Amino acid sequence: MQLQQLSTFITQVEQALQVAPDEVRRLFHGRGRRWEGLEQITCDWLQGQLVVSLFKAVDEEFLNALRQALVALAEGDLWQQRDGRCILLQHRYESGAPAEVISGELESRPVVVENGLKYQLHLGSNQNAGLFFDMRLGREWVQQNAKHANVLNLFAYTCGFSVAAIAGGADQVVNLDMAGASLSKGRENHKLNGHNVQQVKFMAHDIFKSWGKIKKNGPYDLVIIDPPSFQKGSFALTKDYKKILRRLPDLLTENGKVMACVNSPAVGSEFIVDSMQEEAPEIQFVERLDNPPEFADIDAEASLKVMLFERKPD
């Protein structure tokens, strides 16, 4: 990280904050590598709270200058105009991702809005806040394509796709994730939006040991696959993704759709398309969804890949 680039970071954050909607939004995405010397810093707007994340250790000079620049931001007119309340600096490179409050008082459990839907976040104590902002257009697509659908949401985390699906008129969503605590947060997200949780199932199971239970709730009109790149002891992307794809023909309806996602810079979009052709050739590639413009990357293949497929009847 380069100290002389810090003014560029603050300028970009201020420009983005001026036009940001009253929803959660990434303001600066250094990891897209469009600003040399700022590749390991991001900034997110959480409707009154600003979260700046460092993904690599920096020297004390840079860190102190960053703190001072953020304090100056909090004392400016723009911050007052946007009703800014807190600036949080998170050290994502350290174990436990510790965070420090730079200005204001942290609201650690804020309810935020995206595409008109509410989500409960958890700030200051975890690497991830509870919603992956780069998947905004993916959730929007699900909401627009879920009417009367039976939806399977694999690796559901806090059930963002499920919330979008029910909001879009899905008849049922089945959420599966090994982390029961994350699914509990997903249940609360549904309740925040006034959804009927009787339409939603929460299964805290290992996907590879649960195909019988998964199939029992099918067939599905839409299957969403959004796994971690690697989860020790449970999922290795390049090895295990294909195991899921080969199960799809038994899970999908005649014209069922699949949203298959991968967010590893080491794995390109061709991996998903080629793997689907190999494991389930009757399920054909349709298109790749765009990522939100605020997540622009100099290499599209290194960024989030959201690939859409549809089963074509014989």
TrEMBL record:
Give residue ranges for domain S-adenosylmethionine-dependent methyltransferase: 25-309
Q: Which Pfam families match?
A: Methyltrans_SAM
Keywords in alphabetical order: Methyltransferase, rRNA processing, S-adenosyl-L-methionine, Transferase
| Enzyme class of the recorded protein, top EC level | transferase
GO molecular function annotations of the record: methyltransferase activity
**Does ATP-binding show up as a keyword for this record?**
no
* Annotated EC: 2.1.1.-
Highest rank taxon of the organism: Bacteria
* InterPro entries, A to Z: SAM-dep_methyl-trfase (IPR019614), SAM-dependent_MTases_sf (IPR029063)
Q: Which GO terms describe its biological process?
A: methylation
Q: What is this protein called?
A: Class I SAM-dependent methyltransferase
Question: Which species is the source of this protein?
Answer: Vibrio agarivorans
